[in-house]
Amino acid sequence: MMARETIVPTLLVLLLAVCCTTTVVHGKEWTVGDNKGWSFGVSGWESGKHIQSDDVLVFKYNPSMHNVVQVGEGDYNSCRVSGPSRTYTSGNDHIQLAREGKTFFICSHPGHCQQGMKIAVTA
To answer: Can you give the pLDDT at residue 10?
Structure first.
């Protein structure tokens, strides 16, 4: 039988080893528009994809020509920004979906949403 003085340090070492080998699981990354990126005609890209909350949408685009605006359903349908929104402008935006349900994104540059730069992602 092992003495208590050797059992406790042994258990601590084993616990530390388990903690060090455990990895944190992150959501899957999805590049919006695949190789084409965030561009005209991307509407519908999300169809048939099994996107979940905690997944990350990656929007790649030329920031001097486009942006990404997270909007409500009404603004998505009307292709305008009138309510609360969040605008991204880096050209390489990583947006984690924090909740289940639909999340809406458009490009707010004049005419771009109407030309298909919008997606409605269901997680």
So the answer is: 58
CATH of 26-122, one of 2.60.40.10, 3.30.1330.40, 2.60.40.420, 3.40.190.10: 2.60.40.420
Cα radius of gyration (the chain): 22
The pTM of the full predicted model, rounded to 2 decimals, is 0.78
70 and 38 Cβ atoms separated by less than 8 Å = no
Residue holding tokens 């084409």?
A: 36
Please count the other Cβ atoms lying within 10 Å of the Cβ belonging to residue 117: 25
| Binned average pLDDT, 10 residues per bin, the chain of 123 residues | 56 51 67 97 94 96 98 97 94 93 96 97 94
User: DSSP E strands: which ranges in 44-106?
Assistant: 56-60, 68-71, 86-88, 92-96, 102-106
